[in-house]
């Protein structure tokens, strides 16, 4: 790497001095406009800054100039992933793995996408290809836990979720999925305990309030359930229809209980 601007830009990016890094990468491109690595590194910087849409043409330029690093494809895949373009991102993770079949990050992203698509078998296949089981131990167990639960192997699923919790006890996601499992088997006290822990760790997760609301309905706490359903809408307005239907159902249950009480009296 003879381009000093690239070296200094990478150093500044590692130190999270992104403004300085941007200036240096622009100078690197001016110095070597036909070097695809310069465009890749600027694209990588933009993804670090959360500017995923802007990173895409930089990765495309790197590819067009013949950069054959698997990282170019995987980082474009991750940019597309964060933009919600899961199908497109999967294409680039596959291209990354064509170059380097042992690129663990691409396997991790593929597992997460398959899980989002509700495909537990391909999730487990992708997880099984991850070589560095130490660095990715948390995600491996999280993905396996959710995948096994989707496949109906609930005990095995919870075992993996508990391992994930033991690794990172301050992350809310495994608690949420354990809560959903307990909802399924109608152990609502245990579910509420898991959802409470998840909310303590991440009070901005709308889906967790939705899950806890379901558990409270099962536990005959209609007022608490309605409060949680309304909270979920406040955090994520896209849940308005789902949570609204749950509120309506909860109110109907409350009315039915009141009528039953009157009849019994």
Unreliable residue runs: none
The end-to-end distance, rounded to whole angstroms, is 86 Å
Largest sheet: none
Give the helix proportion (percent range): over 70%
What's the CATH architecture of the domain at 170-265? Alpha Horseshoe
Pairing-aware structural class of the strands and helices?
mainly alpha
CATH third-level topology of the domain at 170-265: Serine Threonine Protein Phosphatase 5, Tetratricopeptide repeat
Corresponding CATH superfamily of the domain at 170-265: Tetratricopeptide repeat domain
Q: What is the tally of beta strands?
A: 0
Please give the CATH class of the domain at 170-265: Mainly Alpha
Sheet-strand content, in percent, reads: under 5%
Number of helices: 15
**Rg of Cα set:** 23 Å
Shape assignment: elongated
Could you tell me the mean pLDDT? 93
SSE succession = HHHHHHHHHHHHHHH
Summarize the structure.
It is built from 15 helices and no strands. It is mainly α and 265 residues long.
Defining traits:
265 residues, mainly alpha, Serine Threonine Protein Phosphatase 5, Tetratricopeptide repeat, 77% helix, elongated
């Amino acid at each position: 790497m003879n381009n000093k601007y690239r070296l200094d830009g990478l150093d500044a990016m590692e130190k999270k001095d992104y403004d300085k890094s941007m200036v240096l990468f622009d100078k690197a491109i001016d110095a070597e406009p036909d070097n695809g690595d310069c465009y890749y590194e600027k694209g990588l910087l933009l993804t670090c800054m959360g500017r995923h849409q802007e990173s895409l043409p930089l990765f495309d330029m790197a590819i067009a100039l013949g950069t054959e690093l698997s990282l170019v494809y995987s980082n474009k895949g991750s940019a597309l992933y964060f933009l919600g373009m899961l199908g497109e991102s999967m294409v680039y993770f596959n291209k990354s793995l064509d170059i380097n079949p042992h690129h663990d990050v691409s396997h991790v992203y593929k597992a997460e996408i398959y899980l989002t698509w509700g495909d537990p078998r391909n999730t487990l296949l992708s997880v099984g290809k991850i070589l560095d089981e130490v660095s990715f131990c948390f995600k491996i167990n999280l993905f396996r836990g959710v995948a096994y639960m989707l496949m109906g192997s609930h005990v095995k699923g919870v075992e993996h979720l508990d391992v994930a919790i033991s690794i990172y006890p301050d992350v809310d996601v495994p608690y949420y999925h354990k809560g959903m499992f307990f909802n399924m088997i109608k152990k609502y006290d245990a579910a509420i305990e898991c959802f409470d822990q998840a909310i303590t760790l991440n009070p901005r997760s709308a889906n967790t309030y939705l899950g806890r609301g379901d558990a409270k309905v099962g536990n005959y706490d209609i007022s608490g359930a309605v409060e949680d359903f309304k909270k979920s809408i406040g955090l994520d307005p896209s849940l308005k229809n789902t949570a609204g239907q749950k509120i309506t159902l909860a109110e109907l249950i409350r009315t039915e209980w009141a009528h039953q009480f009157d009849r019994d009296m």
